[in-house]
Amino acid sequence: MGNATRIREIVFLGLSQNPDVSVVLFLFLLLVYVTTLLGNLLIMVTVTWESRLQTPMYFLLRNLSVADICFSSITAPKVLVDLLSDRKTISFDGCLAQMFFFHLIGGVDVSSLSVMALDRYVAISRPLHYVTIMSRGRCIGFIVASWVAGFIHSIVQISLLLPLPFCGPNVLDTFYCDVPQVLKLACTDTLVLELLMISNNGLLTTLWFALLLVSYVVLLLLLRSQAGEGRRKAISTCTSHVAVVTLHFVPCIYVYARPFTALPSDKAISVTFTVISPLLNPLIYTLRNQEMKSAMRRLRNRLGPSDSMGQQFPLDQPL
Predict the structure, then answer these.
(1) Residues 190 and 160 sit within 8 Å (Cβ to Cβ)
(2) What's the DSSP call for residue 199?
(3) For 280-304, b where at least 16 C-beta lie within 10 A, e where not — what string?
(4) Which are the contacts of 11, defined by CB distance < 8 A and separation ≥ 6?
(5) ∠ CA 34-35-40, rounded to 5°
(6) Which tens digit of pLDDT belongs to each residue from 129-181?
(7) What is the pLDDT of residue 310?
(8) Burial of 42 (C-beta count, 10 Å sphere; 0-12/13-18/19+)
């Protein structure tokens, strides 16, 4: 199919056609997006400037914060603009670009969570060799590998879509571009490609999620032989990681591990997946992490008066 017949823009139906509902959604998602940016930036600044957090776990956590900022920024600004617009469109090339970066950062997120699971395994199973095994150079290598893996995954998705003829229609009942939605616009039989992408995205994601859960179960079993404050701290860290992994992977499995047919719950799950999930990193890793909260207090005391700020941001309150 020639480029002359390819659709040039895609029209989104968006989250709601009701103006009043759109305003409420705009305010809610704006609050979530701003909180996501500020929360992840706070983690990045705290880990960078606090000498006591110069450990592999926090080094990897900072990379996850970078990925979460990027991931939320791929869809959230466009969604916010569209909620206040009568006509919601994106160019076809812009749609491909959004999908590319969406799967790039999504792949980085999955890889980063996997590396963080490995980090916890080494810390718990080989504590005497932890610093040697998870050296700064090796951590940098893991981070680079995470971005390379995300890039390869994204390139595969786009490469499978590009040869298809997209000659119309050009309307999608969604608010962002992703493979399951855009594949419906191809004017050819896409059953084989759909099955390939389900196996590439959905099946691999499901198996990887199961593997990560098993790894954390093994870690928790290893902790049974330990005692004291170190055991309590390690269990708290592992449960935080399990919560983030679960809340990230479950929507992902819902989207990609089933036939690409529309369901009533699709938009709600997609909002959770694209906008809410990046907020979980700062919420879970800071509210459940006493070491991070203490570091934030020290950073706050360095930057300004502690009395007034301590009243507004009581980071040392018990959960």
Answers:
(1) no
(2) I
(3) bbbebbbeebebbbebbbbbbeeee
(4) 87, 88, 89, 170, 171, 172
(5) 105
(6) 998 999 999 999 999 999 999 999 999 989 989 899 988 789 999 999 998 88
(7) 44
(8) middle
Nearest to 149 by CA among 190, 116, 114, 182: 114
Q: Which residues contact 156 (CB under 8 A, 6 or more apart)?
A: 200
CA distance 177 to 160: 15
Of residues 222, 226, 236, the one with CA closest to residue 293: 236
The answer to whether the predicted template modeling score (pTM) of the entire model surpasses 0.70 is yes
Q: Distance between CA atoms of 256 and 99, rounded to whole angstroms? A: 14
> In whole angstroms, what is the distance from residue 219 CA to residue 159 CA?
39
**CA gap 205, 79 in Å, rounded:** 26
Closest CA to 276 of 287, 286, 267, 288: 267
Alpha helices in the chain (DSSP H): 19-49, 56-83, 92-125, 130-133, 136-161, 179-182, 191-197, 204-222, 229-256, 266-271, 277-287, 290-303, 306-312
- Give the Cβ contact number of residue 149 at 10 Å: 17
Sign of the CA dihedral with 85 first, then 88, 91, and 94 last? positive
Which residue is it, tokens 């990609």?
Answer: 256
Q: Give the whole-angstrom CA distance, residue 116 versus residue 56.
A: 9
Handedness of CA 100, 105, 109, 115 (dihedral sign): positive
Q: What are phi and psi of 10, to 5 degrees?
A: -120, 135
Structure tokens at 312: 């507004």
Q: What are phi and psi of 90, to 5 degrees?
A: -150, 140
